[in-house]
Amino acid sequence: MAEVLSALSKKLVSGHYGPAGDAGIRLSGRRLRGLWQLAGWANFETAAASALEALGLSTIGTFQSAQATQIACAWRIAPDKLLVESAHDLGAFNSQDLAVLNLSHAREAIILSGPAARDLLSQLIAIDVSPAAFRRGAFLQTGIHHVGVLIHCVEETDFEILVPTTWAESGWEVLLENALPFGLEVHSNA
Amino acid sequence: MIRINCPVCGLRNETEFTYGADATVNRPALDEQETGPWLDYVFNRDNPRGWHKEYWHHVQGCRQWLVLERNTLTHEIRGCRLAREAGE
């Protein structure tokens, strides 16, 4: 398989931007271990059972809550669709009842963190992202600047944003420009 | 403003969705020979003042098709289901 390259390699320039002082926002990128979409039909959970077992997952999970194991992170993005980050090659689980698609080249992970990370998100999306409403382990599918993204709350002030690779640079620019007033630190890698 | 309670994503702003079509229209049987039912199916739509069933697409979210019951007068929404389940 071709090596997965970062679409943000030209954007990830380490440094402090915006007002001097403590940065309210930190932005960086992360190379995905491998991203797979598992999709099926009415018997999706049964069809996905062996793939789930290999990933250490017992169920397809619930909407809006991520499942994490030592080797995978899974997001139930639709009734019969699961997005899975894993370094394991899931292609072997492809069958008539389960469509397995390698999306490793199709998404880029932007890491947003810092004490003002939720303030920044609330400027960009019309969803309640307060700590009570958007808890650790939860995820949202929404649009930032009209680009469909998945936002995963990894920790209280740490978020990962999966952006389509072809829109990664413009997504990054929207985040960066909105982050500047809070004081911004960019790290070339997470 | 319309807020739609997507069964997958939860309560979201209308801006994440696009309107699809009238969800009350049923396709005639494929062996229907009369032109009237096909004319109604393809072209003729009611324009109700009040409750109406509509297809909406959560295009900036889970990308599922939904069936809403929306009041065209007040924009009140009293039901939202996945389109795949609406016919069950």
Question: Your description of this structure?
Answer:
The complex is a heterodimer of chains A (190) and B (88). Chain A is of the alpha+beta class. Chain A has 2 domains: 21-32 and 105-186, Gyrase A, domain 2, CATH 3.30.1360.120; 35-102. Helices cover 16% and strands 35% of the residues of chain A. Chain A is built from 4 helices and 12 strands, in the order E-E-E-H-H-E-E-E-E-E-H-E-E-E-H-E. Chain A has helices at residues 44-47, 49-55, 117-124, 168-179, and strands at residues 15-17, 25-30, 35-39, 66-68, 72-78, 81-86, 99-102, 107-113, 139-144, 147-155, 158-164, 184-186. A 7-stranded mixed sheet of chain A has the order 1-12-2-8-11-10-9, with helices on one face. Chain A is globular and about 55 Å long. Chain B is 14% helix and 38% strand. Chain B has helices at 35-42, 83-86, and strands at residues 3-6, 10-13, 18-22, 51-57, 65-71, 77-82. Chain B has a 4-stranded antiparallel sheet with strand order 3-4-5-6. A two-stranded antiparallel sheet of chain B has the order 1-2. The longest helix of chain B is centred in the middle third of the chain and has 8 residues, at 35-42. The chains are: A alpha+beta (190), B mainly beta (88). Chain A binds chain B through residues 63-64, 77-79, 126-127, 140-143, 146, 148, and chain B through 7-10, 12-13, 15-16, 59-64, 82, 84.
